[in-house]
Amino acid sequence: MYFEPGRTDHQLPFDPFKSCVVPRPIGWISTTSAGGIDNLAPFSQFQNVTFDPPTVLFIANQRAGGGRKDSVVNAEQRGEFVWNMATAALREAVNITSEEFAPAVDEFERAGLAKAPSRIVRPPRVARSPVQFECAYLQTVRLPGNSDAGTVDIVFGRVLAIHIDDAALTNGRIDIARLRPLARLGYCEYTAVSEVFEMHPPTSGALAAGMEGSAKKYQRAEAEGER
Length: 227
Description:
Layout: H1 17-20, E1 24-25, E2 27-32, E3 38-43, E4 46-51, E5 54-61, H2 70-78, E6 80-84, H3 91-96, H4 107-110, E7 115-116, E8 125-126, E9 131-143, E10 152-164, E11 169-170, E12 173-174, H5 176-179, E13 182-184, E14 190-192, H6 205-226
Antiparallel strand pairs: 1-13, 2-3, 2-6, 4-5, 5-10, 6-9, 7-8, 9-10, 11-12, 13-14
C-alpha cells in the first residue's frame, strides 16, 4: 500500500502511522502546579536527546477540549519535572493516570501510588518506579498541527539527578529484562521489554577515540565529584 498523510486516504480502519515507529518509551512525567498540586501523566512520545549533559524530552498533544496539558504548564511554571520509568508491573496505574483529570486532581492519589520525595526538584517521584530522573525545564518547542489536536508541545529537560533502585541492578548494570519497561505501540497496544541481546558496533579510528574520550571524561567528573 501507499498513501500520503493528509493528502490521500490510507483506506484502513485506523491510521497506521503510530504503529510504524515502535516501540516508544513511556514518558511518565510528574510535575507540581504553581498552586502545589501534584500531577502525573504518561506520554507515549518520550526520548533521551543527548548524554553530555543528559537531556530528555516529552511531547504532549493538546487536551481533548483544547488547551495545553497540565504537565506542560506545570513544567514551564515551576521549571522542573520528573521522569519515572513505567514498567509492566505498574501498567494499570499508568493507564489510570492517562485519563484527563481537572488540574486540581492529584493523579498519584487517583492511581493509589505512593510518592517519594525528590532531592533537587519539587515534584515527587513514583515510589514504586525503579528508575527516576529529576529534571530542570529547558524550553518548549511548539509545533502547529493540521488541527488543534495535532498541535504539540515538545518539552526539553536537563537531567539533574538519577535515582536507580539497587534491586534493579545485576552485576552493576540495569537489568532491563527483569524490570520489563513498558512501551507504547500503535492503537491501544503496548509491550514490555522481556528479551535483551547484545551487538557490539565495529569501533575503529575516530569512533573508538571518541568513545574512549567520553568514558575518560565521565571518570574524571566522577572522581572530582567525590573529592
